[in-house]
Write a structure and sequence with these properties.
The complex is a heterodimer. By secondary structure, chain A is of the alpha+beta class. Chain A has helices at about 20-30, 30-35, 125-130, 130-140, 145-155; strands at about 1-5, 10-15, 45-50, 60-65, 70-80, 85-90, 100-110, 115-125. In chain B, a hairpin with a 2-residue loop joins strand 2 and strand 3. Classes of the chains: A alpha+beta, B alpha+beta. Chain B: It comes from Prauserella flavalba.
């Protein structure tokens, strides 16, 4: 499912789970590694852990099996158990681009029967267009991640 | 034929094609103009443009007898599709985990 309004391009998905908002929030943020599609690693070694530091301004990064860390972005808003906003700052080439802010808003809403609805909106994908020139240029840097990129995208396609 | 993320990434996997895209970020251009600014032949530029077109990154239009090439915003649709698939996998995994957690009664904090 996806939706567009005006020039904003976003991805919108939701799911209902049999947990309280607090437990759903904790499961999603503190144990993100367990939900992460493991082929989506941007690092040079296998993915060991996805970390969301539990505070506004915290880092959002992955740690590889060899201990190396690759940033995905940061925590823009930390409001458990109802809402967390993460900034996804990966360029189209899967490198961190501090100039690029796409926003992943995740809300946790209580539903009858002790359930919670998680809604995820990944917003401002149109910003990938704004940085088209810069993105393509970065591909020329040494140590590009073409290998990782191809592997992860073929699995997802 | 729907454009796939891997076609886009394959298209971007070549330095000359990235150079063509960079030039096109400045506006629409004809093959000859691109060839003048790149260290490759005109037929080679045409070949690269064909790959970029098939990947949905470039569109072609006619201006009199000339054909002009420009960046296609539909490339963005591919990025969105890719991220949509990414979040679908993540939330599917999350739902499975949550079901398992929900079956266990209150777990000690």
């Amino acid at each position: 499912m996806s939706a567009e309004s005006g020039t904003e391009i976003m991805v919108h998905r939701q799911v209902s789970v049999p947990l309280t908002p607090q437990r759903a929030f904790t499961l999603f943020t503190a144990r993100m590694t367990e939900s992460w599609p493991s082929e989506h690693s941007i690092g040079s070694s296998a993915l060991a852990e996805v970390v969301v530091e539990p505070r506004e301004g915290g880092r959002w990064f992955e740690r590889g099996a060899d201990g190396s860390e690759c940033d995905w972005g940061r925590v823009a808003e930390w409001a458990p158990p109802g809402r967390v906003v993460l900034l996804w700052q990966l360029g189209a080439d899967w490198r961190l681009d501090p100039e690029l802010d796409t926003e992943v808003e995740v809300t946790f809403t209580e539903e009858p029967g002790g359930r919670t609805r998680l809604e995820l909106r990944h917003r401002h994908l149109e910003r990938y267009g704004d940085q088209a020139g810069a993105t393509y240029a970065v591909f020329d840097s040494p140590g590009g991640r073409d290998g990782t990129l191809h592997a992860s995208v073929e699995l997802a396609a | 034929m729907p454009v796939s993320a891997s076609a886009v990434l394959d298209a971007l996997g070549d330095a000359n094609r990235r150079a063509i895209l960079e030039l096109l970020t400045g506006g629409a251009m004809a093959v000859g103009v691109l060839a003048d600014r790149l260290p490759i032949s005109r037929p080679a530029v045409s070949q690269h443009l064909r790959v970029l077109k098939e990947a949905g990154l470039v569109t072609e239009s006619s201006a009199g007898t000339r054909r002009l090439y420009r960046i296609d915003p539909a490339g963005l649709a591919v990025v969105r599709e890719y991220l949509d698939g990414f979040w679908k996998s993540t939330l599917d995994n999350f739902a499975r985990l949550a079901e398992a957690e929900g079956e266990r009664e209150e777990r000690p904090a």
